[in-house]
Amino acid sequence: MLTQAPRGTKDVLPAESYRWQYLETKMRRSAALAGYREVRTPVFEHTELFARGVGDTTDIVQKEMYTFKDKGDRSITLKPEGTAGAARCFLEHNLYADALPSKMYYLDAPIFRYEAPQSGRLREHHQFGCECFGAKEATTDAELILLAFHLLKDLGISNLSVNINSIGCPKCRPLYHQALKEFLADRFDGLCPTCRERFERNPLRVLDCKEKQCRELTKDAPSMLNMLCGDCAEHFEQLQECLRSADIPFAVDARIVRGLDYYTKTVFELITRTKDGDLTVCGGGRYDHLVEQLGGPDMPAVGFGMGLERVLMLLDAEGIEIPSPGWYDAFVTYMGDNRIQAFRLTEALRKEGIRCDMDHCGRSLKAQFKYANKTGAPVTATIGDEEAAAGTVRLKRMSTGEEQTVPAGRAAETIRTMLA
Prior knowledge:
alpha+beta, BirA Bifunctional Protein, domain 2, Rossmann fold, 2 domains, five-stranded mixed β-sheet, 15 helices, elongated
C-alpha cells in the first residue's frame, strides 16, 4: 500500500506534465483576455462553509465530502468545489469594497469528492474555474459561457453545445417548489430514498437525481421556465439574446438544475458528444445570494468550473496531440577527465537560456550519446581533450550527424541557430 496511490487519485508523471502545462497556459490566456485574475484559496476550509453555501441537501454535503476533526476539535473539509472558497475569500478580504465587478479564476485547484472513481471523474481532481462578483447583467453570464466555449474550441474539442436553463430566484422558486411537490406527491413511493428525503426540504434536487427510476418519474415534471418572475424571465431572455448575437449554438434544457443549492437564475452546461454518449465538460451558473448567505452584502455573482482531467481525456478521445516542448535543447557529453569543463559548459548554456544537461552517472562516451538520444536532445555538445585544450566545443546535430567545432563562448549562439 505504501507504493500505491490511494484509490481515486492519479500521479502526473514527468513525461506527461507538459500536457497539463499546455492546458494551463491556454486557460490562463483565456481568463486574462476577459480580465480575470488568479486567486489561490486553501485546500481545506471550515466544514460549515460548504454546509451553508453548497447546501446540506446536496449529494456533495451528504455523501461526498472528506471531513475530519483537526487537533483543535474543529471540523475541517477538503474542498469539494471551488466557488464557496472563492466567495469566502471575497468576503474575508473585503473585496466588495474595491471596484466591481471582481473577476477571479483558479487553476489546477485540487477538488476532493468521495465517490466511485470512473472515467474522467476521480476522488481528487483539478479544476479551472472563473468567478465574477458584483455584476448582475446577463452579459456576464454570456461572457463566461463564451470564455469556456472558445477555450474548448481552441483546444480542438468538437461537437460542442451549450445547454442553459433558469431555476428562478427566492421570489418565484417557492411557487415552483409547491407545483413540483404536488406533481411528485403521487409518485413519492417510487422515488429513491434520497429523493424522498429531499421532497420536503428541496424538491428541486429531485430533478438532479441520477437514479433511473427517479428520472423516469420526473420526465413530465412542470418546468420552472413557465413560472419565472418578471426579473428572472427578462434576465434569461437577455442571456439568450447575447448568445445568439455571438453565434453560439445553445439549447434550453429545463432539466438542468446543477447539484449545488447556491445557484439562482442562470445555470448552464457545456456538452460534447462522444461515442459513449453526451459528456458534460463544464458547468456553472449564477449564485446571487451566496455572499449574503455567508454574512456579506447583497452581491450578484456568476461562475463556472471545468475539470482538467476531463478536458485531457476528451483531447485523447478525439486524437488531439498536444505538442511536446522536448526535454532538452542540447546535451553536453565529455571524454576523459573533462567532467568539470562539461559542468562549466552546461551552466554557461543554461545562463544563456539553453535547456541542457550533462552526464551525472559516469557513463562512457558511447553511453552518453545513447542517453542523449533517448532524451530527444536535438544537439550534443562534446568536450574532449583536444576541445578542452583549444577552448572549443564540438556540436552535433543528432538528426543528421552533421558536426561543427566552435569556440566555447559561441556555443549558445550556434546551438540557437541549429535549433532554428
